[in-house]
Give the backbone structure.
Amino acid sequence: MNVILEELLHKHFAGGDVPLNPDLVHELDILLNGASAAQPETSKHSQETGALEELYHILWETLNLLGAETSPVISDGETMPSILHAADMLHTECKNIVQNEQHTLRETVHLKTIQSVAKAGSWDIPVSRDLSTVQNYWSDELFHLLGIDPSATKITYEHYLSLVHPDDRGFMLEEVNRAYMETGRYDTEYRILPGGDPNNPRIVREIAEVIKDELTGEPVSLMGVTMDITEIKLAERAIVDANTELRTLFNTMNEVFFSVNVEQDKLLQISPACTRLYGYAPEAFMKDPFLWFSLIVDEDKKSVHESNLRLSQGANSQVEYRVRHKNGQIKWLLTRMRPTLNVAGKLIRIDGISSDITERKEAELALANSELKLRTLLENSNDAIVIINERLDYTFATESIGRIIGYSTAEFIGTSMLDYIHEEDQGFIAHSLLSLNTKPEEPLPFEVRFRAKDGHWVWLEGVATNHIREEVIRGYIVNFRDVTEEIRYRRELEDANDKLKRTNTELDRFVYSVSHDLRAPLASILGLIEYTASETNEEDIKQNLSMMEESIKKLDVFILDILDYSRNARLEVKRTPIDFSGLLIDIRNSLKFISTGNSNVEIRINIDEDGTFCSDRSRISIILNNLISNAVRYYDPAKTSPYVEVTVVARADVALIGVKDNGIGIHKDYHPYIFNMFYRVSEKSKGSGLGLYLVKETVEKLNGDIQFTSTPGVGTEFKIYLPNP
Ligand code: ADP
């Protein structure tokens, strides 16, 4: 390179402010070398002058190339200043070019960055009839959006359309046409399929403008920007969905949501559930901002007010209170609220949610009531309940133990059961525990002596049940009461009873022996009367003797009755198969010898027996004897055919006996007394008044039952039921 040129270039371009443009240097070099090759050297001076002029021309040619006017002619002696001037001009020009280039470069980088960040590709489509051939301009980002390799050669509008979602292609083309024909621009959204993949559509917004020829006004191209707004759209959709969900929730939830502008005392919103909760629609609350407070039950207004105070201090608050529903029903509400304070710390807004907790509250109250009832019952009962664990320590006791054994629950719980049980009852306890554990389902009754706090022994009676396996109990539940008094009374009763039994037996024996001993002298007297009567002819004496005989026989019957009674009371029941037929025939025969005043009473006997009924023969004989003899004795003289009808139905398990007569009958006023000892309906009665008493006692001894019906003037019927045990 020309030395001077080199110096000049270095001086003007390599000064640091403008970098040497290699292309320019190269071009200058070619020009310079070309010029010097074309100009043969003559003399040193002329050579130098020629070279400088050459340089001047080269500089100007370069300046011309860069757009400067035609080069001015060098005036004489002005070669060097002209060169320097040209070089300055070139320097300035180059500096401008480089700066412009740098600016353009920066703009391009900016544009690319913007497109990439905004996911927006730009394009330019020249107007053409043939969409398949016309070449478009696509920015790099557009290639990126469409998922195509930027080196793809066939960048046509048709190609672009093939990547638009088939369903959106129609309206997208309509937009383009409308822009050409009418509007000159469009702004629309549609789906594209990057890389042609139908499974991964993206949503784009496209803004385009028709570029027109300035002179003719004809459209020359369509220029636009296509932005990927998929994420924005998805976010928008998510927001819409979330909003819809929230709104649905707001409208359908049982809880009442509300927001209040505290500064203006204005209800901002209240969810429709308020209609169910209060009986008033949201509009009613919107209209009257104090409606909600007026519905609160007076007694609960204070707690709501206190909750509001907490809110004004910036704290979340929760309050339970009652409100009066429009229909008069009282409802329990739980309201949770969150305050919003302004920068000055003043409450400006409350957001809250109210739930109907009536059912829970009522259940709680019912539970508390029933708990209270149960506790009151337990504490006031004469019974006590304790729980004993597997180590036999008390783990629970009702307060009522204080009344029974004198201990407080605090003193009692934790101590061992065995410390209190009487030595003689310890064995029973051990046995009880064994049976409680072997048969846990069976409650175990007990009666033990227990040492009370004051050292006295208390008899406790109760029941223990095994709940060892139950998680909550883990022990034996024992309920008991103080039966010390009862036991003392029972013991006394048992003693008295024993004594009574002994006296009774002695009395029975005494009655028996007296009755028995009385019969022997009576038999002697009867013998003497008979002898005396046979020795005299005097009618008076005979009559007196006959009366004496009758009285003594009556006395003998009475003694026999007493003996029967005594036997019934003393002797054990002795069961044998009963032959009712034989028994009744014997009775009928024996009655013939009894003075009845009328031997015309017919005794009818109906028997239905299979010979398997077992009972005490002598007792059945006493029963039948007394009933039949009564029926004969109390016959009705007014009746032409007096009778007594005995009916027996006897089977293996039961015997039913009926004794029916058509005698004088018994007035109903006497019915309650006829089974009483020594009871006789009238003084004229011929018996001792012991007969029916004896019958009843004997029937009862045989575990049977006796009933009767009787009507004066009609007759009497006794019915006896006897079981065969
Ligand atoms: P008594 O030894 O007086 O017969 P009972 O105890 O056998 O005593 O009978 C009580 C009373 O019941 C009798 O006095 C009699 O008046 C009445 N009585 C008992 N059986 C009959 C009967 N079959 N018909 C009418 N009255 C009867």
